[in-house]
Automatic annotation (TrEMBL):
<dbReference type="InterPro" id="IPR015422">
    <property type="entry name" value="PyrdxlP-dep_Trfase_small"/>
</dbReference>
<keyword id="KW-0808">Transferase</keyword>
<dbReference type="InterPro" id="IPR004839">
    <property type="entry name" value="Aminotransferase_I/II_large"/>
</dbReference>
<protein>
    <submittedName>
        <fullName>Aminotransferase class I/II-fold pyridoxal phosphate-dependent enzyme</fullName>
    </submittedName>
</protein>
<dbReference type="Pfam" id="PF00155">
    <property type="entry name" value="Aminotran_1_2"/>
</dbReference>
<dbReference type="InterPro" id="IPR051326">
    <property type="entry name" value="Kynurenine-oxoglutarate_AT"/>
</dbReference>
<keyword id="KW-0663">Pyridoxal phosphate</keyword>
<dbReference type="InterPro" id="IPR015424">
    <property type="entry name" value="PyrdxlP-dep_Trfase"/>
</dbReference>
<keyword id="KW-0032">Aminotransferase</keyword>
<dbReference type="GO" id="GO:0008483">
    <property type="term" value="F:transaminase activity"/>
</dbReference>
<feature type="domain" description="Aminotransferase class I/classII large">
    <location>
        <begin position="25"/>
        <end position="371"/>
    </location>
</feature>
<dbReference type="InterPro" id="IPR015421">
    <property type="entry name" value="PyrdxlP-dep_Trfase_major"/>
</dbReference>
Amino acid sequence: MSKLPNIPTSIFSVMSQLANAHGAINLSQGFPNFPVDERLLQISERLLRENVHQYTPMVGLPSLLDKIAVLTAKNYKRKVNTASELLITAGATQGIFTAINALVNHGDEVIILDPSYDSYEPSVLVAGGKPVRISLNEDYSPNFNTIEAGITAKTKLIIVNNPHNPTGRIWTESEFEALETVLDKHPQILLLSDEVYEYISFTHPHISVNIRPKLIEKTIIASSFGKSLHVTGWKVGYLIAPEKIMNEIKKVHQFLVFSVNSLSQHVISEYLDVVDFKEIANMYVRKRNLFQELLKDSRFELLPCEGTYFQVVNYKQISTKNDMDFAKELITTHGVASIPISVFYKDATDKQMLRFCFAKTDETLIAAAEKLSRI
Ligand code: PMP
Ligand code: GLN
C-alpha cells in the first residue's frame, strides 16, 4: 500500500528534466545559475584539507549555531538559545518534514494555505495527519474568515510561508496581528513559518515571526542557506523553535539524518563572517526589475512581486490552454521552462498562470525574455 498514492513526482523535477531534454532555458525550478561567491569557493578549498570530515554534533556545528544566533539577534533582536532552540537541517525541506512528523499525530489536521509549496501536504500525509487546504484571497492575502472556519478541535498546525512561493507576496503587520488573534483563541495550534526567502523582499520588509513575541512561543521557523547564499545543492537549512517543541523535533531528526553534511556547515559558518545579505537583496531587486522591464511589452501580464526570486505571469492574452499544457508548449515550442501555478493548489484548478524564476544571469534573463516577447 502506498503511503502517498496521489502524490506525483515533484513538479520541480519534472519541469527541469523537460527543460534539459528540450534544451530550453530553465526558469522553472528555483535555483541560481550564476557562479557562487569566490570567497565561498576559497573557504571550501581551504577547509577541504582540514579536519572537517566527520559527524558534527547531532544538532549542528557549534560555530554555525552560534552564528545563526548572532544573525537572528542582529536581524530580529531575538535572543535564541543555541543549545536548546536551534537545529541545523538538510535544507528547509528536511526541517519542515521533520518538524511535521515530530509534531503531527495520526488524525491531526494541518491548515495549508493555497497556493502552497509542494512539500507541505506529503509531509503531513506521511505523518498520518490530514491536510486542510484553504485558499488565500485573489490577491494572495490571507483570509481569516476561511482560516477560522477551517479550524476544528483536531487542528494541530498552521503553515505559513513568507515571502511566499510561488506568488512573492509578503504578509503585512496587520495580517500577523489577525493571525495572533485567531491563534489566541486556539491555544492547541502550533505555527510553522517557512521563511526560506527571508532576505529577498522588495516592496516592504519581510516580517519574521522572530519579531512577534506572541507567536514565538508556538512557532517553528524554517530557513535555508540554499536560498540566501545561492547554494541550493548544499542542502543546509535550520529550524528555530522553543525548547519544548524543539526537543520533540530533535528526537525525529536524529533518526532521519542524525547530522547534516559537515563540510558545508564549516564553510557556511566561516562565510557568514564576510557575507553581506543586503548585497544579495539588492542583487535580486535589480534582477526582478530587469526581468519585469524585459517583459513589459510582451503579451504576458506580470503580477506584483514583493519578494522571493519568482515572477508570476498570466498568459490569458496568448492562449486558452490550461497552465500545465501551456507550460509544456512553452518548453517544446518556445524554449523556455516555467512552473504552472495550478500545481500549488489542491484541486489543480487552472489559473492560466506561470511562475518564472529570475535567479539567473542577466544573459539568461535577456535570452529568455527575447523568446517570451516573440510569442
Ligand atoms: N520552502 C519553500 C517555500 C521553498 O521554496 C523551498 C525550496 N526552494 C523550500 C522550502 C526548501 O528549501 P531547501 O532547498 O533548503 O530544502
Ligand atoms: N523550492 C524550489 C522551487 O520552488 C525547488 C526546490 C526543489 O526542487 N525541491 O522551485
